[in-house]
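JOB MANIFEST
job_type = single_chain_structure
chain_count = 1
residues = 343
[input]
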Amino acid sequence: MSQPAKTETYYAMALDPIHVGTGGYRLGRVDNSIVREPGTNIPKVPGTSLSGACRAYASMVTGRYKRKKNGRIFSCAGQGQEDKQRNKAGHCAEHDCPVCVAFGFARDRTGFQGLAQFTDMRILFFPVYSLVGPVWVTCPAVLKDAGLSCKCEPSGNKIKVSEGLKINGNRLSLGWLMLEVEGKFEIQSILPVLPVPGEIVQHSVIVPNRLFTTIVNSNLEIRTSVSIDPRTGAAEEGALFTYEAIPRSTIFWFNISYLDPKFFTIDGITPEPKINNKPTTVQEVVEKGLAQFQHLGIGGMNTRGMGRLVIYGLQTQSQKGTSPEEKSKEHEVENPPLEEAKS
């Protein structure tokens, strides 16, 4: 790495609904709302949620989740503060610890920021029901933020659909909205080859920027839960609550910047992360954690069928050496087109 840092872009698809709550109850259509961007009111997954979950999973994979050393128990996951009453020493803060080097550590009055910097995970394609089946909605502003060009912005309140989407007439329903179709666009002309299922990009719809927020917030998944009284086995009175989630098959994107260890020191020593005494890189450590998202999930309600994500673009894991086209084809084999899945 010749530069002080390099930035990698990752894409993700929700295998389950994603709920990252704001904490507490708020006035609104649901009791437990999810995190949104203040300026656009579009739901997102904060970078802190990504980093925290990734750190925990990376520590599990690398054997740093819980280990004994010199009679003390170290854990490089979580906040890592020392607890003498429970004989917990917190983060190990070693210059060769893959987790502490990648994600940082806090020890009393000292600390280290970590060499992996996460951005928020933002929506790129959002699934919406229509009369022709599921479609994935995006808008020019969202594509631009993701570093993707869009030269086919629809005019007025009209929309444009990808060439792979077959519709009858010149109107298309997106949830409760019926919008006029202005024309079609060739998806490959504005998007590079994305390592996501081709079924999604071939059934994409570009809507005006001003309608995207409304469409997203009108089609979030809303669930209702209730506490059960163990004495009667019936619903407990006054314990009904609702919560919202980003729906399954939503496509996200986010960036991670990897800083070069040679520009930093831990106790005067240049960080040299190792796994099983073998040198590794910050990117490899982080991607080991990201690879576990499809099993362990992110956010809340993980035991209620929420949270799992599959991350695309991992370069140091099993996908290494596979082109984006091959990754997409492999995933399409595991997830057949919607028409075939119905039969």
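[summary]
Residues 5-119+247-312 form one domain.
DSSP finds ten helices and 20 strands in the chain.
exit_status = 0
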